[in-house]
Write a structure and sequence with these properties.
383 residues, alpha+beta, four-stranded antiparallel β-sheet, Butyryl-Coa Dehydrogenase, subunit A, domain 1, Butyryl-CoA Dehydrogenase, subunit A, domain 2, 3 domains, disordered N terminus, globular
Length: 383
């Protein structure tokens, strides 16, 4: 009996971490081939759908698993122990579900029910362009009869080959200034295509290709939000609060698995004082990443989106990135020369964890945001 068929009672009954762990060996077996061939982890996504993890974050009263942020992070981290690409790509779907789920619970007027019900009923995969758009947005929206014609190139769209709806936006010029429209874009539209651009140093199986939009018309009623370009909006404080603990769970899981490989290799040799010291440094760096990530989760669980919450999340994001990268580098050192061989798995994890550098807010903007919060200065246009 397959791992998936054994788990058909759903994520709420069995626990999403247990499901992720059961899928892990299959994902790990395919990870090297996906990395070597820049191939999207399509089979893994099919198993994620069949297992019920796609709808895990949808509230139970809308047909989903009702799983909260801490357990969703643990699920992503467990997936990353086996395949970093699967974990990172799936974190993008997971956070795009977690955001409307949070709004359903805390903002009763938020028009999110139809989307969440569809995710649960149809097991739709949501894509995100948030990292490439962020506060300024990208792409062009032109007003036409009944809606807006969109022209855009959305980069870093992780999971693009398997996606059903791209949660994105575009910029429209208006007399009182540029505005960003937010909407869902059906990937099956004849005006939407995936450009196979993803040839990267790491996370090669994520399918983080460009999505090209050439004239798709978004109906007026499908625009969920219009905001001023280049200014923080409350939605982005919600995004920051929920998305980044999930995204950085993937990088933490990569670092944890690198540590486990390095320790297993080092234990096969006679004790060496230099290796012992390296292992100790590795453990310390990893623990710092784990503590920072736990603080991100605790901040998200408080559920108070605001500039102060975003600051705490982004400080945590910076610390997880720094210490996860350092711990993985030390895992390479602890393992010694054999870490240079691809078949040990450390080299791939070393490359995968480098992606932690590139999500918003990167070091400069994050330090500026934190400094402004500390000094009581305006953060409205800081990103």
């Amino acid at each position: 009996m397959s791992a998936v068929s054994e788990l058909n009672t759903g994520p709420a009954a069995l626990g999403v971490v247990a499901i992720a762990r059961s899928l892990g060996p299959s994902f790990a077996a395919r990870a090297e081939a996906a990395d070597d061939g820049d191939a999207f982890v399509a089979e893994n996504y099919q198993m994620l759908k069949e297992s019920g993890l796609v709808e895990a974050g949808v509230p139970a009263d809308l047909g989903g698993g009702g799983i909260e942020i801490a357990e969703l992070c643990a699920m992503i981290k467990e997936l990353a122990h086996h395949c970093g690409s699967t974990a990172l790509a799936f974190s993008m779907h997971t956070h795009q579900v977690a955001i409307p789920a949070w709004r359903w619970t805390h903002q009763q007027a938020a028009p999110v029910m139809p989307l969440l019900k569809r995710v649960a009923a149809e097991r739709l995969v949501l894509l995100s362009s948030g990292g490439s758009d962020w506060i300024r947005g990208s792409g062009k929206a032109e007003k036409v009869e009944g809606g807006y014609r969109i022209t855009a190139q959305k980069i870093f769209t992780s999971g693009s080959p398997a996606g059903d709806i791209l949660m994105t936006g575009a910029v429209i010029e208006e007399p009182d200034g540029a505005k960003v429209l937010h909407f869902g874009l059906p990937m099956k539209s004849p005006h939407v295509r995936v450009a196979p651009t993803w040839k990267a140093i790491g996370m090669r199986g994520t399918g983080s290709n460009d999505v090209i939009v050439e004239g798709h018309v978004v109906p007026e009623e499908a625009v969920a939000l219009k905001r001023n370009q280049g200014e923080w909006h409350m939605l982005f404080h919600i995004v920051s609060m929920l998305a980044f603990p999930l995204i950085y769970a993937a990088y933490l899981g990569v670092a944890e698995s690198a540590r486990d490989i390095a320790v297993a290799i080092a234990k096969q040799r006679a004790p060496d004082p230099h290796v012992i010291a390296l292992a100790g440094q590795m453990e310390t760096e990893l623990r710092a990443a784990q503590y920072a990530h736990a603080a991100m989760i605790a901040t998200a669980e408080r559920g108070n989106p605001s500039p102060e919450t975003t600051n705490e999340i982004m400080i945590g994001r910076g610390l997880v990135a720094r210490h996860a990268i350092s711990a993985t580098e030390l895992a390479m050192e602890t393992a010694g020369g054999c870490a240079f061989y691809r078949d040990k798995g450390l080299e791939r994890r070393f490359r995968d964890v480098q992606g932690a550098r590139y999500h918003p807010m990167r070091t400069g903007p994050q330090s500026d945001f934190a400094g402004r919060i500390a000094l009581g200065l305006d953060t409205k246009t800081t990103f």
